[in-house]
């Protein structure tokens, strides 16, 4: 993409309304625009990252054997009356009356609707196990929306629901979700720690939250210093292998890691040597629940078992806050100049800065480099504006592309361009062809 | 995908509520489930086609130089008060009050919001031309939703908005949209005819609707028999070349083609020889508008011109009904057995039917074929259920995959499988390797 043909409305000033760095940087980098309290437009750069995150979530869910569908944003109130949550949910639920005065609501989550889909179409244990998920906009009418997309009202969430015959099967589904989530966050360049959590309005005993460590996190967290070092890495996972999946979960949840809601000071002291006892703050970016038959009993979602009897289906629900992940990513990856995207989620793979726009030789070299990058399957952003070098560098640093190639007449005279790493700030001179190869190799490894 | 691991709840009976064939077939093929009047869940098969259509729309918009972003579903009422449409829009607009009693609405379209984004960020003619679009769920509270996804209340629409300095520039954007839409529909296997239309609530003089011919269409259409034969085909289009783009528009809009709203019997008789005068019905699947400064004037969206003055920006808006396209596709592509997907939009590339599930040799041959198809980058659906051949064929015919490979012990004895074309019904015996090559070649050509 050529910047002169793109829509990247960066701001020079720090917006007064933004209290945390991710909100400030998303506004300054032209990623979002607030349309009402807690409701945002995703401008092209923000939308591009959002789509990238969505894609990673889809890929990892499908890899785990989960099946995508899409439920609507609006739901009839009657479904929620069946589960008893219509009255319980309180003012966070956006209630709507349509033109025929029917009670509707903007879905804050989908346990009821997915249970309705299940009971309408599934009869037998033979159709199990089954995990359905969607990535859809939700609405929670927060009394005080703040922190940009971190606590918005209209937000994008992946929510998945498992249906199993037995508690044991459902706990395998729970574990499968935990592992698929670990891989999802790792691919995004995040360290998200599963922590035992309290259950809240979804219900259920077994539940873990995934927290990204960041100073601005809303939760206080207590953890063994060894926990953030755990990595899933490149290991292949057979999601049908219960023992293998369970062993990974054990590996990631045995060491002490809790939020303030479930923290136990005595256990912390007993289990963790003092020098490894860490207290910090975390941003919640996902949560998994096993809640058994809570919804299936209330809503009559039963299956015929091998012995011919009928039992309510065992369920759990599992969510990733996709839009809020952008905020968490920036909280965990920025410096005073701006955002630093991990390669796995960057909106463009590499920035191309022309130091002398209008100079025939420099323009030609940039055009050639651009074409060579595209030919390698890369998606570069070419700053072809007639601007000073300083302004171009400031924009690239602000929007946080992990790599930048700088092309100027002086370097070209000796056949060189400069490749700069956004995170380290280090630059290296090399030929244009070598720069293309280097950048291609970095992304080929992802 | 193995069918035993998928969620494909096909119905044996014709659902009583469905009045038209696309609605009936989408329900029977397990593509959608109604959750409230005019509000549907997209079950896995339906969601897969919807995503495919969305992808084609994105690719063709990006090819035309248009930039994706995403606006929220909910909008503040104040924006619509600025344009004057808050009162004009009537009961089709779903009006909502949030917990602080603020007036909101579920967006039925986005002229106001995109104009707000533009005026907040663009100052100068130097940022033009600019076309922004999104694909987002909309809501129109139809008094009598019907025909399944063809006239739903919550529906997925691509809406794009061009911003230009002059009327001439804006008309080029209009033409660019027309050509990109022609290519979009052709890739989906649809013949969509641009017809001059009346303007309706968006406003503007220049407007064309795109209609797919189908007996169940809501509009009566009058056209020259030569019009449906026009094809864009494989020709490369330079979207920056005004003359080239305008010439394509002329080619597709010169012959007579009008809806009942703009039909002129005298002109029809004068311009079209009697034997080519066709009267039929059509389904609207898109519409483009040039409306000049209607919204920019009302909302103060101006730019500084080269001479330093300020003018309201020239605009148009351009929509494709993405979710309704599924209905239109099925109306135009089905027979008494079920759906017949065009290759460009099919949810799975090929069906694989095992005639003797549980037989070691047949199972092994199917597993091998499946792996070979996947290795070619194809997405097969393998019916591995323990069902009679007749039931498997009926399911494949109902869900409409364009190609089917049938594997049975008798054929395998002579090293043969059967490749069947859904549309023609013709079958051919060949080796498994040849079947894989043939199917791969069909999709490689798309």
UniProtKB/TrEMBL annotation, chains A, B:
The keyword RNA-binding does not apply. HAMAP family: Pro_tRNA_synth_type2. Pfam families: HGTP_anticodon, tRNA-synt_2b. GO terms for biological process: prolyl-tRNA aminoacylation. It comes from the Bacteria. This is Proline--tRNA ligase. It comes from Rhodobacter xanthinilyticus. The keyword Disulfide bond does not apply. Belongs to the class-II aminoacyl-tRNA synthetase family. ProS type 2 subfamily. NCBIfam families: PRK12325.1. The gene is proS. Keywords: Aminoacyl-tRNA synthetase, ATP-binding, Cytoplasm, Ligase, Nucleotide-binding, Protein biosynthesis.
């Amino acid at each position: 993409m050529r910047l002169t043909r793109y829509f990247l409305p960066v701001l020079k000033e720090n917006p007064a309304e933004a209290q945390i760095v991710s909100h400030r940087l998303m506004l300054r980098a032209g990623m979002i625009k607030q349309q009402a309290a807690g409701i945002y437009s995703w401008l092209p750069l923000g939308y591009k990252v959002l789509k990238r995150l969505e894609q990673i979530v889809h890929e990892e869910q499908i890899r785990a054997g989960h099946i995508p569908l899409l439920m609507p944003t609006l739901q009839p109130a009657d479904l929620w009356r069946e589960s008893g949550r219509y009255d319980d949910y309180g003012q966070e639920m956006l209630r709507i009356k349509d033109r025929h005065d029917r009670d509707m609501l903007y879905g804050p989550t989908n346990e009821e609707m997915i249970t309705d889909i299940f009971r309408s179409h599934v009869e037998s244990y033979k159709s199990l196990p089954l995990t359905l998920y969607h990535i859809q906009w939700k609405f929670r009418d927060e009394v005080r929306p703040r922190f940009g997309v971190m606590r918005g009202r209209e937000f994008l969430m992946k929510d998945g629901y498992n249906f199993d015959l037995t508690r044991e099967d459902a706990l395998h589904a729970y574990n499968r979700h935990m592992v698929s989530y670990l891989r999802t966050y790792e691919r995004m360049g995040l360290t998200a720690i599963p922590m035992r959590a309290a259950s809240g309005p979804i219900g259920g005993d077994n539940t873990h939250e995934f927290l990204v460590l960041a100073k601005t996190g809303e939760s206080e967290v207590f953890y063994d210093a060894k926990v953030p070092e755990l990595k899933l890495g490149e290991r292949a996972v057979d999601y049908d292998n219960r023992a293998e999946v369970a062993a990974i979960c054990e590996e990631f949840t045995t060491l002490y890691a809790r939020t303030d809601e479930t923290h136990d000071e005595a256990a912390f002291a007993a289990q963790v040597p003092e020098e490894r006892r860490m207290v910090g703050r975390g941003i919640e970016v996902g949560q998994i629940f096993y809640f058994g038959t809570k919804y299936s009993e209330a809503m009559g979602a039963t299956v015929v078992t091998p012995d011919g009897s009928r039992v309510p289906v065992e369920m759990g629900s599992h969510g990733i806050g996709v839009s809020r992940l952008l905020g968490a990513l920036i909280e965990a990856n920025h410096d005073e100049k701006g955002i630093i995207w991990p390669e796995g989620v960057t909106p463009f793979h590499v920035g191309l800065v022309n130091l002398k726009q209008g100079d025939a030789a420099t323009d030609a070299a940039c055009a050639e480099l651009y074409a060579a990058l595209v030919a390698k399957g890369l998606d570069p952003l070419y700053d072809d504006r007639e601007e000073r070098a300083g302004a171009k560098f400031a924009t690239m640093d602000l929007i946080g592309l992990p790599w930048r190639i700088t092309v100027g007449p002086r370097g070209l005279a000796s056949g060189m361009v400069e490749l700069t790493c956004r995170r380290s700030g280090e630059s290296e001179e090399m030929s244009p062809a070598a720069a293309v190869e280097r950048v291609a190799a970095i992304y080929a490894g992802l």
